[in-house]
Every structure is written in C-alpha cells, then in structure tokens.
Amino acid sequence: MSKRTTSSVTSINVKTLGAADRVHGSVRFRYTIAGKYIEHTVQLAQTACHYGGVRHWFRCGYCSRCVGVLYLSGGQCACRHCFKLAYKSERENDTYRLYRKADKIRERLGWGAGVALPDGAKPKGMHWKTFYRIKAQHDATVRRVFGSTAQWCDKITSRLQRIDSKI
Ligand SMILES: [Zn+2]
Q1: Cβ proximity of 99 and 116 under 8 Å
Q2: Contacts of 54 (CB under 8 A, 6+ apart)
Q3: What are the backbone angles phi and psi of residue 119, rounded to the nearest 5°?
Q4: Contact (Cβ atoms closer than 8 angstroms) between residue 77 and residue 70
Q5: In a domain? residue 34
C-alpha cells in the first residue's frame, strides 16, 4: 500500500512534444529542484501505425523500454516500471483482488464464493490440521477484504461529497 501512484508524480507525455522536438531523435528536459539544475536527455523512438502514420515513444534511459509517458521524481527521469509506480486503477483493484482471493479459499473449503455468506463446515476427508490452516487464511483474507472495502467506501463517499458541493 506504500506504492505511489502515477498521478502523484510529475509526468511528461510524448504527445505533448512538438513536431520540432521529435525531428531530432532525442529531447532534453531542463529544470531546477531546490536550486539544483537538472537536465535529462531522452532518446525518442517511433513505430509505424497499422493505418499509416507513426507513433512516437520515449526510450526510458534506465531500461530502454519504449513508453508514452515518463516520470520525473527525485532528479530522476524514468518510466513507471523503473519507478515502480502503480496505476491508480491497479491500486483500486486491490479490493477486488482480495475478494477473489477470499472466494478462491472458500472454494477450496467447498463453502461457495461470497465473503458475506456464513462459514461452512470442514469438508469430508480433509485433515483438521489442513482445515484450520486454510480457515485461518480465509479469516485473515476476509478481515483484509472488509478493511479494504471500508477504505474504498470512504474514498467514494468523499468523492461524492466533492461532486455534491459543486452542484
Ligand atoms: Zn524504465
């Protein structure tokens, strides 16, 4: 949960470059952070589109990946993979992933999917030790599901309040 999201860091989209920038095959970004002068030279690449024309890319200076967006943080300029940035939607999907994880555990126990349903009994033929181990996993995951859902509800509620205040 400590992962920063892509929207919390300064980004540059390759689409914002002018035609003149693209001609040279590389582009230079200059700026200052706390009085320190910083300059990055980034290589550009292009690929042919299916229906004609070309698509432009930045080439990440660290991993050489062709990317549409580069991020600036701490005097570094790199792609989201190198900064290990998570897209905001990926973060929001954590809740959904937890629901799926809980369902998978419930299926192993033969309880049926759905964390709101009551817990079932030990499946026939399963060792008690195994059952308790899986049930402990289940309970821990369900607690995370509810914690994550509560956070998610808070976020939605505050978003709705912001919309309300604009109307
Ligand atoms: Zn990279």
Answers
A1: no
A2: 46, 47, 48
A3: -70, 150
A4: yes
A5: yes
Quote the ligand 1 centre to 140 CA distance (angstroms).
35
86 Cα: distance to centroid of ligand 1 (angstroms): 13
Render pLDDT for 95-116 as a digit per residue (tens, 0 to 9): 888 888 999 999 999 998 888 8
**Distance from Cα 74 to the centre of ligand 1, integer Å:** 15
Closest CA to 115 of 140, 90, 91: 140
Q: What is the pTM of this model?
A: 0.49
Q: What is the pLDDT, as a whole number, of residue 4?
A: 67
Q: Which stretches of the chain score pLDDT less than 70?
A: 1-8, 20, 23, 86-92, 163-167
Separation of CA 44 from chain center:
25
Listed in sequence order, the residues at least 6 apart from 63 whose beta carbon sits closer than 8 Å to its beta carbon are 78, 79, 81, 82
Whether 157 is covered by a domain: the verdict is yes
Could you list the residue range(s) of the whole structural domain that residue 43 is in? 8-83
Domains of the chain: total: 2
Q: Average pLDDT, whole number, for the chain? A: 84
Question: Strands 10-13, 69-73: parallel, antiparallel or unpaired by DSSP?
Answer: antiparallel
Tokens of 38: 């910083």
